């Protein structure tokens, strides 16, 4: 076939264009790949083979499956005890201090409080050492059962510095001179007496014996006070040290004091320096009264109208 010149030139041009469009062959592979282009992104770190791969969906599921700890509930406040339905009942027990002026005046002050009803049982020359003369454990049980007090106030021990007769018929007499045996037996008697008058429904206030002016008696009372205090505190009850009430700043026995509304000091001790005068009984009662109110959780209040319907003690 014979081509004309224009056609031949057209064919050659098409072949030349086809040759320029064909891609060049890839260069041979080498050990050195050369520097990475500046615009190339940094390679992602290889996954840690020691940790299992977790997809975002799995992580979300795991987070939902893990329980969130609930906050601990706040402790509930203890319930407020209900107020007594009637007046608080107070029972005073003791020796001559309870039987005479001081006991009578303390009973009167407490009984005048609108929220208190007070009763009293005293026996002069009595105590825990001589149940053959007066059996306080038996009497205390009878009084507690009859009065059902919320609080028992005790003051006794001034007559206990002597040999102790048996608490039971088959027991042995315990001499005061046998110091250790006497202390052990007296502590047992105080513990038993407290157990007779104290339970979960009532409180006890034990009044420590006031300071006496007779040194030989005061020496015995120091032993008796210590035993009584240890026994009362061991039961979680209240022991009131009355010595500061009847002594001056130097610890000496207070002989005169202003009592009530009196303008001048009055003698508060009898000539024996043991018993109180009537003014002294009032002085002592005025200082014990707020101690009793404090244990009852009551504030002082105007006296209630007098009543003649109270049964005899």
Task: Walk me through what this model shows.
With 313 residues, this protein is α/β, with parallel strands linked by helices. It has a domain at 88-296: 3-Layer(aba) Sandwich (Rossmann fold), CATH 3.40.50.1110. Helices cover 36% and strands 10% of the residues. The protein has helices at 5-21, 56-65, 96-99, 101-112, 136-147, 179-197, 215-234, 278-296, and strands at 88-94, 116-122, 151-155, 203-207, 238-240, 256-257, 266-267. The strands form 2 sheets. It has a 5-stranded parallel sheet, sandwiched between helices. A two-stranded antiparallel ribbon has the order 6-7. Helix 4 packs across helix 8 (278-296), helix 5 packs parallel to helix 6 and helix 6 packs across helix 7 (215-234).
């Amino acid at each position: 076939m014979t081509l004309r010149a224009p056609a031949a030139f057209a064919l050659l041009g098409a072949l030349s264009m086809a040759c320029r469009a064909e891609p060049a062959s890839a260069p041979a592979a080498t050990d050195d790949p050369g520097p990475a282009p500046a615009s190339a992104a940094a390679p992602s770190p290889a996954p840690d083979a020691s940790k299992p791969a977790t997809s975002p969906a799995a992580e979300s599921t795991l987070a939902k499956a893990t329980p969130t700890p609930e906050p601990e509930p706040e402790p509930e406040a203890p319930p407020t005890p209900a107020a007594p339905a009637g007046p608080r009942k107070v029972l005073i027990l003791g020796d001559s201090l309870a039987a005479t002026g001081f006991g009578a005046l303390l009973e009167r002050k407490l009984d005048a409080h609108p929220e208190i009803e007070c009763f009293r049982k005293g026996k002069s020359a009595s105590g825990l050492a001589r149940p053959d003369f007066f059996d306080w454990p038996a009497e205390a049980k009878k009084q507690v059962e009859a009065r059902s007090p919320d609080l028992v106030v005790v003051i006794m021990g001034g007559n206990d510095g002597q040999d102790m007769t048996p608490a039971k018929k088959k027991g042995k007499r315990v001499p005061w001179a046998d110091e250790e045996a006497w202390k052990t037996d007296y502590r047992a008697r105080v513990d038993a007496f407290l157990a007779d008058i104290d339970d979960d429904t009532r409180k006890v206030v034990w009044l420590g014996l006031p300071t006496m002016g007779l040194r030989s008696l005061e020496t015995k009372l120091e032993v008796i006070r210590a035993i009584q205090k240890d026994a009362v505190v061991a039961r979680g009850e209240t022991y009131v040290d009355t010595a500061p009430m009847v002594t001056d700043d130097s610890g000496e026995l207070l002989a005169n004091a202003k009592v009530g509304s009196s303008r001048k000091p009055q003698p508060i001790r009898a000539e024996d320096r043991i018993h109180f005068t009537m003014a002294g009984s009032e002085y002592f009662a005025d200082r014990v009264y707020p101690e009793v109110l404090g244990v009852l959780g009551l504030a002082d209040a105007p006296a209630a109208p007098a009543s003649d319907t109270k049964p005899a003690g």
